[in-house]
């Protein structure tokens, strides 16, 4: 089995899931898988992927895993009690041939509370099945050389004493084995420079900090769950604040693009939240605008954190750290460039929410190719409501 623990996923899945349990337990959702990399043939591995997903659906949380989650300050006892009974429902996921040659189609449909944990392990399964068949003799030494080169950019430079980076690469990892080695090596060799990992199982296994707050799907779902569409982003942030009471205070800024985010992120949110996360568009421009927004709302930017996580490399993260040094707190999450950099082209695969309670939902990114919606009429309406430029 590729996935041997339900903890082998990103922390923000659990933090969002707890909000779903307490605020939206009846919500029904639909997710759809997409491969953005052209000319990838996954058809020969369809049954292998199905078998791995079937095995995933047999997993349960064990006592050690529940005790670990119970020890996280923001996890509540009733949520852990729910997880004690939890398993992923196989009836809610469909894996079939896609419409185009070589494509596969994966869809998930059912209660949000019971399907939210599918995304990350399913993407990790697709990646590992593909690479273990297409790259039967991986060049592990080349991967280690590249990893050492990245780490040495930080550890050999005294001017980067305050630099911190986390590993965010579960969904697009080359394999679980390589992912484990990356986390173990970074912990051993980077010391204080290594902030932790988004993967809860890796964090428990290696004794490092699990990191994460919210993902796009949370704010997307609020399009259907809030009082009206225009207030959905504000509604999502307010529900989050009610749940965590000031903890887990990094807001995701690009579900509707930065302009719409800053219009909604008023003085109340500037003072309440610890910072914001960048996931699309030019990170330097984004950072400058967010810091100016904090200052304009009578909030000292030096007390706030900017989290950068969009397709980062180590040199890019270092450049950002130097650019914003002394002006705010800075954190970095590097994903694919750490967990799938052995000399092979990584797959650009995603699995995004497309409907909630039967209504289309959308993500309108500052990077146009990341915009996702299956209903053009709804997307046009959302752009109008949030005063976004036409596509």
Automatic annotation (TrEMBL):
Residues 7-127 form the Nicotinate phosphoribosyltransferase N-terminal domain. It comes from the Bacteria. Keywords: Glycosyltransferase, Ligase, Phosphoprotein, Pyridine nucleotide biosynthesis, Transferase. Transiently phosphorylated on a His residue during the reaction cycle. Phosphorylation strongly increases the affinity for substrates and increases the rate of nicotinate D-ribonucleotide production. Dephosphorylation regenerates the low-affinity form of the enzyme, leading to product release. InterPro entries: N/Namide_PRibTrfase, NAPRTase_N, Nic_PRibTrfase, Nic_PRibTrfase-Fam, Nicotinate_pribotase-like_C. Pathway: Cofactor biosynthesis; NAD(+) biosynthesis; nicotinate D-ribonucleotide from nicotinate: step 1/1. One of its GO terms (molecular function) is glycosyltransferase activity. Its EC number is 6.3.4.21. It catalyses: 5-phospho-alpha-D-ribose 1-diphosphate + nicotinate + ATP + H2O = nicotinate beta-D-ribonucleotide + ADP + phosphate + diphosphate. Residues 163-389 form the Nicotinate/nicotinamide phosphoribosyltransferase domain. It is an enzyme of class 6 (ligase). Belongs to the NAPRTase family. Catalyzes the synthesis of beta-nicotinate D-ribonucleotide from nicotinate and 5-phospho-D-ribose 1-phosphate at the expense of ATP. This is Nicotinate phosphoribosyltransferase.
């Amino acid at each position: 089995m590729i996935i041997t623990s339900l903890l082998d996923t990103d922390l923000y899945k659990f933090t969002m899931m707890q909000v779903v349990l307490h605020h939206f337990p009846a919500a029904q959702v639909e997710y759809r898988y997409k491969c953005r990399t052209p000319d990838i043939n996954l058809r020969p591995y369809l049954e292998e992927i199905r078998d791995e997903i079937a095995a995933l659906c047999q997993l349960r949380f064990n006592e050690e895993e529940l005790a670990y989650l119970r020890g996280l300050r923001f996890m509540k006892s009733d949520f852990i009690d729910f997880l004690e009974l939890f398993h992923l429902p196989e009836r809610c996921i469909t894996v079939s041939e896609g419409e185009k040659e070589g494509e596969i189609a994966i869809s998930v449909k059912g209660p949000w509370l019971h399907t939210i944990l599918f995304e990350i392990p399913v993407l990790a399964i697709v990646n590992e099945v593909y690479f273990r068949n297409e790259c039967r003799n991986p060049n592990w030494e080349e991967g280690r050389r590249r990893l050492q080169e990245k780490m040495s950019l930080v550890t050999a430079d005294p001017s980067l004493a305050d630099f911190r980076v986390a590993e965010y690469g579960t969904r697009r990892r080359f394999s679980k084995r390589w992912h484990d080695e990356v986390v173990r090596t970074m912990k051993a060799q980077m010391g204080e420079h290594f902030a932790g990992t988004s993967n809860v199982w890796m964090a428990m296994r290696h004794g490092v900090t699990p990191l994460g707050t919210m993902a796009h799907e949370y704010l997307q779902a609020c399009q259907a769950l809030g009082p009206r569409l225009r207030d959905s982003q504000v509604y999502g942030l307010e529900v989050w604040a009610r749940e965590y009471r000031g903890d887990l205070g990094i807001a995701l800024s690009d579900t509707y693009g930065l302009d719409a985010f800053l219009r909604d992120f008023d003085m109340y949110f500037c003072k309440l939240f610890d910072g914001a996360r960048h996931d699309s568009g030019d990170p330097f421009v984004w950072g400058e605008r967010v810091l100016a927004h904090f200052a304009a709302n009578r909030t000292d930017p030096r007390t706030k954190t900017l989290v950068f996580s969009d397709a980062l490399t180590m040199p890019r993260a270092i450049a950002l750290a130097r650019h914003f040094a002394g002006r705010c707190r800075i954190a970095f999450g590097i994903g694919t460039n750490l967990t799938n950099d052995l000399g092979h082209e990584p797959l650009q695969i995603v699995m995004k929410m497309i409907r909630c309670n039967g209504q289309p939902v959308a993500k309108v990114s500052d990077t146009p190719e990341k915009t996702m919606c299956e209903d053009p009429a709804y997307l046009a309406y959302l752009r109008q409501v949030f005063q976004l430029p036409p596509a």
